Structures are given as structure tokens and as C-alpha cells.
Amino acid sequence: MRLLKCAFICLGITALLASAYVVKEGDTLWDLSDEFLKDPFAWPDLWENNRHIQDPHWIYPGDSIYLGDSIREETVLTTEKSKYPCNAAISDSALPKGKGYSVTNAGCDNGDERNSDFEDMLGNLRDKDKKSIKKPKPVDEYYYQKRPAPKIFNGYYQLHAPEIYTLDSIKNDKRFFSIRSGEKKEPIIHLPESEVVIGIGKKTDSTLKRGDLVEIIDAKAIEVPTAKGSGFDKFALLRLSGYAKITAIGDTLSRAKIVTTFREIKINQSKAKLKKPLEVINVKGYSQVKEAKMDSLAMIRYSMDPMLVIGTFSYVLVDKGFGQGYNTGDAVAIWEEDKTDASLPPRLIGRGIIVRATENESSVLIREVYSASRRIEVGHRVSVTHSAVIAK
Fold first, then answer.
1. Model's pTM, two decimal places?
2. Are 264 and 220 spatial neighbours (Cβ–Cβ below 8 Å)?
């Protein structure tokens, strides 16, 4: 009997190890879901199976991830577990020292168990019966904690980052082609399984085949304030709306079926483009930028949702790019100037990360907002606080 118990235990341990994966630098739940579950959009299931992961957008080299009972690999890679960013925190010279207000950094937890903060922000999607735990009231004395360098860049945000084009450049770009509804009665909202017709066929692209994925891109004209604020420049703002799969190919047109959507698809202002592999940057670390001159800072020129409050996980456009040292992966701070007295230092009201940079413009994802009463707005200044070290 004892021998039989030992055999069962050994089989259980072997099965568990065969379903485990050790995170390497540059991995994301999106990529791991694509590789092991054959569906990148199944990353929430992978997150649900790994309760020790606090924030699904940040996983760290050396962490062990349970892939599920259906995954069986012959070899399991093991790497030395690296320290969490919070363990190597650096002080933030922009924040007051001594008594003040305590800022807890999102995702910084030296323990292995997930607390309920992140799921509470999502609205308890996984467990409607979960009761939020009341936190004890803080004591009278507060202080600013040391803040770590930014977490490793996530390619998922790079995929959804908006792009900005001049109107002439998008008209002459042959990668983009037309798209219209393929339904007999055009629906108000195009959902998955809806049919579309795209302006590409065998005569325009001989390599086209059934099953190819097409990006559906929302392309609308926008007016952006000039740097001096004396007028407006016209651009085309592009954002990924969803994917469609080609089902039939003609000479100049093809039919496709929508497989997933990220936002409402407005056919009358959409473009299509064949899906290409995304060149995700690999950030291996950060170097701190100690100071910056106020006159050289970038400025927020446009918000993706101009009528709504700019909050966490919102995208904004700034008027500097890699030509001025604002590179993809760099971490930035958002500042509010006091116009009444130029001698007063600016207020730090938020932080973000550059998710896509062109020569003269950048898309910034807001990651932290520090004040409920002072909003991030168009015209606020942006400075680089940490430069990304890119792995070759």
C-alpha cells in the first residue's frame, strides 16, 4: 500500500511539473497563451490559473506559471528567479521628502499571494460574491516611499497604441485598403461573425490566401493644436478596432468574417490592412534620467477620448518623438505648471510609458494618476524619467 501511495505521489508531481513554465525575459501572458493555448485571447484563463500573479500585465523572469492540465512538455526550463522591481527601488527626487502622503506602487508586492486590489478595480469579474476587505485607516503620520524603476515594457499595449499619420501619407500608403459591410442589411454595429468585403484580391496580391487575418483599423481625421497654439494641424488618427479572417478571394475583392473586436467598428471610417507580426521591443532594464529643463519638455497635444476624463490606461499623444529623445519603452512623468507664478515648481500629477514613437510624435499610456481633483489635460508637460535599455 505504501509503495502504491508513493507511485501516485510521483505521478502527480510529474504531471504538475509538465504543466509548469518558467518565465523568461520578454514573456507576456498574451504571448504564452498564443504559444501554449493556441489562442492569445485566452490570457485571462492563464491568469486565473495562477493566483500568485498580482497584475496580468506584468510577469517577471523566474516566475513559475501553471499552464493547465492539457499542457504536457518533455523539458521544463528553469532560470534563477530575479528580484522584484520593488526590492531595488530608487528614490524619486521629484516628490517631497519627510511627512507627506504615502504612495503605494501598483503591482509591488514582496509576497507570493495575490491581494484583491487589482480584481476589485476590475469589479470582481471572476467572483460576484467576493466581499472587499476593509483596510485599516492609516495613522496620522505619512511619508513617501521609494519608487522603483518602471516595470518591464508590455507588448500588449504596443499592439493597441494609436498611430498618427499626415493625411497625404495615409492616402499614398499601399498597405491600407478599403473595407465595407458584406451583410445584405448593414447592421448598426458590426460584431464577431459579421461579414465584410475588403479591397484586395488575387490580382492585387498573389500571396493572399484563405485564413489570412486582416486588421480592421479606425481611421479618422483629427485637428491637433500646433506647438505655438496659434492654429491646428490636420492628421489621421489610426486605432486597431478588430480582426477579420478571409473566407473567399476574388480578383480585386475578398470576403472576410470578423473574429474579434476591441471597440465599435465604424465601417464608414475604417481601413483594412493585412496583419503582420508585431515587432515588440524587448526591454531589459532602465536608466534614470536625473533632470530635465522645463523648456525642453514635451506637451500633450491630443487625448484619445477628448470628452472624457484622462485616467489610467488612457492614451495621449505628445509632440516629441525619438528625434528628440522620446523613445518607445521610456517612462515619463506628467506635470502641471502654475501659470500664476512661474517661480513655483510644477506639480507631478501622473506617470506613463511611451508605447509607440515616431520621429516627432509619441503615444503615451497613462499608468498612474496621483490626484482625484487635478486632471491630466491637453497642454500638460511630459518629461522622460527613465530611459529604456533595449535588448539587441
1. 0.53
2. no
